[in-house]
Amino acid sequence: MNIRNILFLFLLSAFCFLPSVFAQGGIKGKVRNNKGNGIGGATVTARLEGKDVKTVTADSKGNFQMEGLKAGTYNVAFDADGYAIGVKFGVEIKNGSVRDLGDRLILGVDQGTQVIIKGAVFFKEGTSLTAAKVEFERVNDDGSTKSLGSTYSNYSGEFAFRPPVGVTKVRVTARYKGVEASKEITDMVNAGIYRTAITLDISRTEK
Description:
The protein has 207 residues and is mainly beta.
């Protein structure tokens, strides 16, 4: 068999193989946060029948494209540092096409990486106080303060607040009908939930 025939057979076999490669499908899209900004470096993993098939990394703007997936119904997982993992279930992939998942792939911040203040306001009898105004102030090393924001206690007297990154000491003040009380939360160095309870010197009969 001469060289020309060998070359012809090689090209023929390669040509026969091409359809199986290019017949496969893929996915593309954009991973964003709750503010609508792309999450650069997000990891995207396609899972088929409980097994990770392929993983790609999004670019600096959160865009990604994954190819070489055989036809089937996938679960697509999205993950990034500082964010809770997200999964899009039942993504159908067809041969010969790239499925566009759009830009609605939104990851929420992982609360395990945040400092969160949670608390409750009570009447002096110990029952929940609804609609108390709760104010938050940063307490600096020199004793000065800076307002961080405010909220109101809900129907069960509870409230929640996420201080800015780097704040380690917060004064929490609850006010209701001219009566107020404060508590300070210190050493908020590590991520986690910091809890407090404030009791106002007012009776529920004075509502």
